[in-house]
Amino acid sequence: MRASRTERVLNYVILTLFAVQALVPILYVLAMALGSQTIGDSSWGHLGNFAAAWQQGHFSQYMRNSVVIAVIVVSVALLLSLMSGYVLGILRPRGSSILFYVFLLGIMVPSEAIVLPLFFDLRTLGLTDTVWAIALPQIAQSLAFGTFWMRAYFRGVDPAILEAARLDGAGDVRILRSILLPIGRPAIVTQIVLTFMWTWNDFLIPLVMSPSGKLRTAPLGLAFFQGQYTQGSTLLAAGAVLVALPMVVLYLVLQKQFISGMTDGAVKG
What we know:
Layout: H1 5-33, H2 48-56, H3 59-91, H4 96-108, H5 115-124, H6 131-155, H7 159-167, H8 172-183, H9 185-201, H10 204-209, H11 218-228, H12 234-268
Helix pairs in contact: 1-12, 2-12, 3-6, 3-9, 3-11, 4-6, 6-9, 9-12, 11-12
């Protein structure tokens, strides 16, 4: 059933209102970041604010920490999610349904409920103030979602494709590498983008697991930068733009596959 012209116009109006609501704060922060630091000066286009915020806020170190942690979390979580999703979605051994619900606990239990016991456990192992103290909990959280996501994708694959591959003598590793990964690129890209976004924006785990502050991530660095520049909002806005920029770039590069993965997931769901 096709929508009427009035319904289409109404849909576009509603979507435009939501888009404006989302874009206005972003444009406001960007305009503030390009404003003058001098009180009373209304000039605009001061690109040097970004360099000043980068240097004064020590964002080079914080961004490097965030990149290293994000790469580790995204890579390990994706690899493990592909394996667990293949087992639970394709092989389906006995007890796989129970195991799947165990994975779902990782989605349902908030990190605030386990971060303190986890801190004492990692401190006992001597891992606090290391990259792994921050990466391992986030890998576990991302693996829970990744297993759910990849299992749903694998269960939607046409069984005839898998049967044909097995008749040709392909094993599980060959099927996963040569058949499922190429056709599942949108789902994989969607998980990469979401995992990167969650890891990059995470504030609590880096704060607790690095008590000395030597492994501050970009959001943590921005919070401490805010404490230094509560009087002037220009450099703070410039710092916020710098912290958000990697996520924006990643999304713009992978947006086509990301949107395809999200819409395919919505249709399958």
